[in-house]
Specification:
single chain; 183 residues; alpha+beta; Peptide Deformylase; five-stranded antiparallel beta sheet; two-stranded antiparallel ribbon; 3 helices; 25% strand; globular; binds nickel (II) ion
């Protein structure tokens, strides 16, 4: 399992519609392992494949840390080609995103959801969720459609966050290529 680099918004690679997965291969299993590793390394609750540069409709969600005691029914979630079959009610949450590090914003999502998806055995599954799990799943499916939570914020707030992220991207590039760099 490898921690992969997470693309930072507004990287245009994050704005594509990802492709469905036909069959589960070893490459897909490795990708999912890397997604979990990358998500846990950054204390995230969800990650979508396009965030590590793979435009496939795959997401992972875990609202617990990997070694935490977890209530039954709250295992780590892997979804391939997820589709909503029910989205009801409204739930406002202060969301963050590993592609927008350090920033949050209020977003309203459906409170109760039902989804169908393919699991890592290639079987079709159904899952119902509410609370943070429902929020995270809707946030991750947005990534598969090239949409980030900042799209729901006011233009002003989005502009401020974009400026910070461009600065962050630039500082990381300078770190890699800077004159004081010794690696
Ligand atoms: Ni995100």
């Amino acid at each position: 399992m490898t921690v992969q680099e997470i693309l930072i918004w507004p990287n245009p690679e994050l704005l594509h519609i990802s492709e469905p997965v036909d069959t589960i291969t070893d490459d897909i299993r490795t990708l999912v392992d890397d997604m979990f590793e990358t998500m846990y390394a950054h204390d995230g609750v969800g990650l979508a494949a396009p965030q590590i540069g793979v435009k496939k409709r795959i997401l992972v969600v875990d609202i617990h840390s990997p070694d935490a005691e977890r209530p039954s029914g709250e295992d780590p979630i892997v979804m391939i080609n997820p589709v909503f079959t029910r989205q009801e009610g409204a739930l406002e949450w202060e969301e963050g995103c590993l592609s927008v590090p350090g920033e949050t914003g209020k977003v309203t999502r459906a409170a109760d959801i039902e989804m169908t998806f393919m699991d890592l055995n290639g079987e079709t599954q159904t899952l119902t969720a509410d609370g943070l799990t429902a929020v995270a799943l809707q946030h991750e499916v947005d990534h598969l459609d090239g949409k980030l939570f900042v799209a729901y914020l006011s233009p002003m707030k989005r502009k401020i966050i974009k400026r910070k992220m461009l600065k962050l991207i630039k500082s990381r590039e300078e770190h890699v290529h800077g004159p004081d760099c010794n690696h």
